[in-house]
Amino acid sequence: MKAHHDIPVSNILRMANILIEIRKNKISSQAQVLAQQLWTDLEKRDTFYESDLNLLSVILYFFPLETIQNITEKILTSLNKYKHYKEIHSTQFSILANLSTIYLYNNRLDDCQRITEMILPLAKQTKRYDKLGFAQVRLGICQGDDALIQKGLQLLELTEETTLLENLKEEVKQHRTSPFSHVSRGISAP
């Protein structure tokens, strides 16, 4: 892999190594090191290409929140360049869901809502009802809208998305304990 054209192959190999490490040992120090190596290459780029976005989707959870906040706009700008390219929809869903999850678990509800609002039209356009249910539940949590949460959960139940349904029910329990609970609405600096 000494030639310049071998860089994409090298990145794929590193991504595969991270995935193998995560599957074997969950989030380990070795996976952290591999993710940092990938990020060192990616952070120098002016724009992210589809393969870069796939890599980022895998390694986002290894970044501190500050890094996520700093690269979110660059990710969104890069995704926007591909909005008419159907083959990237899976990557879009993945990276947007991962970003919204990171923001939710860090109590950055406004950021989570903004990202999740991008999933909703994409899910409708592609008729991905699992993603639509996910987005409805996540938005319901962010907005404190129990009716929207129920709508999303019902959709997932009707489409027999049992694993996602159970995961989101747990998320609702963690982040929306009662109709009157209020979580700090964290907002990233623009």
Record keyword descriptors for this entry.
mainly alpha, disordered C terminus, single chain, 190 residues, 2 domains
Offer a quick outline of the entry.
The protein is mostly helical and 190 residues long. It is 72% helix and 0% strand.
Q: How many beta strands in the DSSP annotation? A: 0
What percentage of residues falls in helices of 4 or more residues?
Answer: over 70%
Our measurement of the CA-to-CA distance between the termini, rounded to an integer number of angstroms, reads: 40 Å
Output the structural class.
mainly alpha
Q: Which series of helices and strands comes N to C?
A: HHHHHHHHH
Rounded mean pLDDT is 85
Report strand %.
under 5%
Radius of gyration: 17 Å
InterPro entries: HTH-type_regulator_Rgg (IPR053163)
